[in-house]
Design a protein that fits this description.
Layout lengths: L10 E2 L5 E8 L4 H28 L5 H12 L4 H41 L17 H27 L9 H6 L3 H4 L3 H12 L3 E2 L12 E3 L4 E5 L14 E7 L6 H9 L5 E7 L4 E9 L8 H5 L3 E6 L3 E7 L5 E9 L6 H22 L3 E5 L9 H4 L3 H8 L3 H14 L3 E5 L4 H13 L8 H14 L15 H4 L63
Parallel strand pairs: 9-12, 12-13
Antiparallel strand pairs: 1-13, 2-8, 3-7, 4-5, 5-6, 7-8, 9-10, 10-11
């Protein structure tokens, strides 16, 4: 066990803290679209200007600089719009800082791997835990140049982080680079321009409790009427009192509509965002609000009725139900999904697979789902896996971050808890201890099914191994029972197996005809009771 890394303990994942619903703005008039575009462009320019100012401040940011930026924005919009823009700017800057730290960690992992492999002789064999030397002098030379490049990138990233410099693109860096690859993206310059401008618009407002319907800037009544507080330079476009513009479209949230109506009726805060889908030519309104923090249930309560262990793979979920003692129950289940195609298609496939998994878990009567706490940030680098391009693509395709967020939110609606476990050695130990014992001539247990059992047992707090090592024969009373499935307080854990009374005696064949009894007795018990026992005189020892 000296070479194994220390395993982290399982924990119950906290539930979601927010809700987001969306509805389409139908039947908008041409004037409505003109006003929405004008508001989006104007506030988008303000947001870009504020983001540039925030990035220029760097680590010198303070309450005074924040207040100064907000005052400048208020003169060109309103106080609430300025507050929403500055808050979005701070969130975007903080996200860029976190991404910068993650990029530095990835570079450090690649540098460590390259330095280790370059220090080994050419052609040195590797081990299961570390790669060996490079195959040829040419490969060694190219990798040494890549090491120099990574070190230069790492030094530049560290200098930027220490100076507080971040690089942010409003609209997205990927969409910006798509401008140079329009043929591969199957876009014209005009289509790309429309998408780029729409992504840089800003039509959003934070909620405010105590105000009418929970939001003064973008107000939605219980009947679904939408009105917008226009910025000061666009006040001439208003068609309602107090510088507001009322849209002709109404909204009705089919999902969580009752919860949304309860909030706005009580004047509780609801944030709204209006955006345009340029591919479909549709406008959407998104509403979001926070939920009170709900304390997660204790880990022992989540384990009380057993768990379902789920092994996450590139194309399916392999799930197995376990009772609270860690024993597999029933048959394994597999929930496939296809992650090829567009992002919307991949998201729909994940939602469909998770819905089937949660419905099965609810019908099985368990209260928790055990899943690996996966993070392939450092494992996707080519420095670690070398020429294993297909394996790198495999682990890159597993939707770890989006999967965990969506599973937690969906499971919370069905009263299920998510128990995250350490993913180390689950596939290896599951195949070693569970794949062969569960295989039968009519059922083939896969490695993924065995990994699901290992994950479930780790979520329950049991070791992956089916039985602990037996104690020495001279210390059985001190070492205790050898099985690890049931605790000392479980009734019948050491009881004898009940006698089988539902089958015929051993001397009766299946067809019901009894065999002929032997003429002579073979044992002492078959001797007649009238037999007189006489001791052999030669047995006396005197």
């Amino acid at each position: 066990m000296g070479g194994l890394r220390k395993l982290a303990g399982p924990f119950v994942v906290p539930g979601p803290c927010g809700v987001t619903v969306r509805d389409r703005l139908k039947h908008l008039t041409p004037r409505d679209e003109i006003v929405l575009r004008a508001v989006g462009e104007h506030q988008g320019r303000l947001a870009s200007r504020d983001l540039r100012a925030r990035c220029a401040d760097g680590l010198e940011h303070s309450k005074e600089t924040w207040a100064a930026r907000k005052r400048d924005l208020t003169a060109q919009s309103s106080s609430r719009i300025a507050g929403a823009i500055t808050k979005a700017t701070h969130d975007q800057w903080a996200l860029a800082r976190r991404c910068q730290a993650a990029h530095i960690r990835t570079l450090e992992a690649g540098i460590r791997t390259l330095r280790h492999r370059l220090s080994l002789p050419i052609g040195a064999p590797g081990t299961k835990r570390a790669a060996g030397g490079y195959r040829s002098r040419g490969e060694w030379f190219h990798k040494s140049r890549r090491l120099a490049a990574l070190e230069a990138r790492h030094d530049a990233a560290v200098r930027d982080r220490q100076a507080g410099r971040v690089r942010v693109v409003r609209g997205g860096k990927r969409l910006l680079n798509t401008r140079h690859h329009l043929t591969q993206a199957r876009l014209t310059e005009g289509q790309w321009r429309d998408r780029w401008e729409a992504e840089r618009w800003f039509i959003a407002a934070d909620g405010e409790s105590g105000k009418r319907f929970g939001n003064e800037t973008i107000r939605v009544t219980p009947d679904g009427e939408v009105s917008i507080k226009l910025p000061a330079p666009l006040a001439h476009l208003a068609n309602a009192p107090h510088g507001r513009y009322a849209l002709t479209s109404t909204v009705a949230f089919a999902h969580r509509g009752v919860e949304w109506a309860d909030r706005i009726t009580a004047n509780r805060a609801v944030a709204y965002r209006i955006h345009l889908d340029t591919e479909r030519g549709r406008w959407y309104l998104t509403a979001s609000w926070q939920r009170p923090a709900v304390q997660t249930i204790p880990l022992e309560a989540a384990r009380a009725r057993g768990v379902i262990g789920v092994d996450t793979n590139a194309d399916h979920f392999a799930a197995y139900r376990l009772d609270r003692h860690g024993n597999p129950v029933g048959e394994p289940h597999r929930f496939p999904y296809d992650l090829s195609g567009t992002a919307d298609h991949r998201d729909a496939q994940i939602r469909h697979a998770l819905t089937r998994l949660i419905n099965w878990a609810g019908g099985a009567g368990v209260t928790a789902i055990g899943i690996e706490d996966l993070d392939f940030t450092a494992e996707k680098t080519r420095e670690k896996h070398g020429r294993k391009k297909r394996f790198r693509q495999l682990i890159s395709g597993i939707p770890t971050g989006k999967l965990k967020a969506r599973l937690v939110s969906m499971a919370a609606e069905h009263g299920l808890s998510i128990v995250a476990v350490d993913p180390a050695y689950t596939s290896l130990w599951g195949a070693q201890h569970w794949q062969k014992p569960l295989a039968t001539p009519k059922r083939k247990t896969s490695r993924h099914d065995a990994a699901g059992i290992a994950i479930g047992r780790r979520a329950l707090g049991h070791p992956v191994r089916r039985r602990t090592a037996p104690p020495p024969h001279d210390r059985r009373d001190r070492a205790g029972h050898r099985t690890a499935q049931a605790g000392p307080g479980t009734r019948g854990r050491e009881g004898t197996r009940p006698p089988a009374t539902d089958h015929a005696p051993r001397d009766v064949p299946p067809n019901g005809t009894r065999k002929r009894q032997p003429s002579a007795s073979k044992t002492v018990r078959d001797a007649p009771s009238t037999h007189q026992w006489v001791q052999d005189p030669l047995m006396h020892t005197g």
